[in-house]
Amino acid sequence: MSKTVTPDDLLGLDSVFSKEDLEWAGIVRKWLDDNVRDHIGDYYLEGTIPARELAVGLGELGVLGMHLEGYGCPGASATQYGLACRELEAVDSGLRSLVSVQGSLAMFAIHHWGSEEQKEEWLPQMAAGTAIGCFGLTEPDVGSDPSGMRTFAKKDGDDWVLNGAKMWITNSPVSDVMVVWAKTEETDDQGRNVVRGFVIPTATPGVEVPVVKRKLSLRASITGEIVLDNVRLPASAMLPKAKGLRGPLSCLSEARYGIVFGVTGAARDAIESALDYTGTRIQFDRPISSFQITQQKIAKAFGQYSSITLLAAHIGKIKDTTGVSPEQISLGKMVGVDTAMNICRDLRALFGGSGITSEYSPLRHAINLETVLTYEGTHEVHQLTLGRALTGINAFAN
Predict the structure, then answer these.
(1) Proportion of the chain in helix, strand, coil states, percent, rounded to 5
(2) pTM above 0.90, yes or no
(3) Cβ contacts of residue 182 below 8 Å, gap of 6+?
(4) pLDDT in the model for residue 121
(5) Predicted pLDDT at 1
(6) What would the pLDDT profile of 13-48 be if each residue is shown by its tens digit?
(7) Using 50, 70 and 90 to split pLDDT, how confident is the model at 184?
(8) CB 344 within 8 A of CB 368
């Protein structure tokens, strides 16, 4: 037998990322190996995750809001944050989702659009993992078109009173603070109600956060609703710098960036798992890795993995230098998630019956990626976003 190499060695990843970046990725991977990897199959089967315990550990590791600056956030590069997401999703998409919602949605909203008082109150706690945040945009009947939201914030003297409901909200049942988006009575030049963001402590009277149960995907993640019943907030709860949908959409773009890198971790883990299993599984007196069809499947998966990894690296470089566009992030999410999902599906077959158990990761990754394909912009929405950019025609219009 010839000497085997890892997918990253064969790709020559050390020439794509700096030594410092790869050392950081190694630190994150080791922490996950020591604290999470052996338990993730059980968390998935149980349909939960010890979010508070992990949040404190991840805060000590320094990954919560790591790409933000100040207020306890280290101000790491976009590429380093992407590599952290890659290692997190190599364990499970639910774990990356916990970190992504915390840092790129809730913390980013406060950091980018909030007041100084909001930043000082919440960001240090969230960076440390002692406070968990969530982000309320999607509603039970409103997903891809956030302009159709029904949650409403009405002025009452100096206060705001919010009513409405949000759905599919990662972290909400265990959150301490939520960033919620609502329409207001204020209108824009076209007569549409202006959307505003609000920072709401979860313990505020009138707030309920029911758990979403019976999920078939992303089970190692705590998902819930946000129900707002005459929730009264002071004027200081509003994010002062966010006016209109530009606020929440900018947060979604940040979170999608983490997905672009994250899904490469799921694909890599599926390949590594397949190599380990097929190298030791004996059939017809030889390891099944020696069969041509097995090698064909693994080689195909490696080629696909290489393409999305290099695409993620390129998008990270752009984000760290000239600045990345929403369309470029749409490209990364559209291609990356679909490709990673297909890699995990194809490789699962190499495990035979064992591949449907929680002992092996490819099927779990594939099922999780079914959710990732849909959230923070469906696959079809990203296709239309790129179609609009390339043709100049807006297919979203009636």
Answers:
(1) 55, 15, 25
(2) yes
(3) 149, 151, 152, 153, 162, 164, 195, 196, 198
(4) 97
(5) 52
(6) 999 999 999 999 999 999 999 999 999 999 999 999
(7) very high
(8) no
Residue 2: pLDDT over 60: no
Residue 28 CA to residue 30 CA, distance in Å, equals 5
In this prediction, residue 264 has a pLDDT band, given cuts at 50, 70 and 90, of very high
Structure token digits, residue 38: 């052996």
Domain 247-391: CATH superfamily, name plus number: Butyryl-CoA Dehydrogenase, subunit A, domain 3 (1.20.140.10)
Residue 286, SS3? Answer: strand
H or E stretch at 244: none
Amino acid (1-letter code) at residue 197: G
The token pair that represents 352 in the structure block: 């035979």
Domain assignments of the chain as residue spans, ordered by start: 7-132, 134-244, 247-391
Secondary structure (DSSP) of 154-166: EEETTEEEEEEEE
**Domain 7-132 annotated CATH 3.50.30.20:** no
What are 199-235's pLDDT values in tens digits? 999 999 999 999 999 999 999 999 999 999 999 999 9
Catalytic residues: 376
Q: What is the CATH number of domain 134-244?
A: 2.40.110.10
Strand, helix or coil at 238? Answer: strand
Question: What is d(CA 320, CA 77) in angstroms, rounded to the nearest whole number?
Answer: 6
- Cβ distance 310 to 16 under 8 Å? yes
C-alpha 6/C-alpha 17 separation (Å) is 16
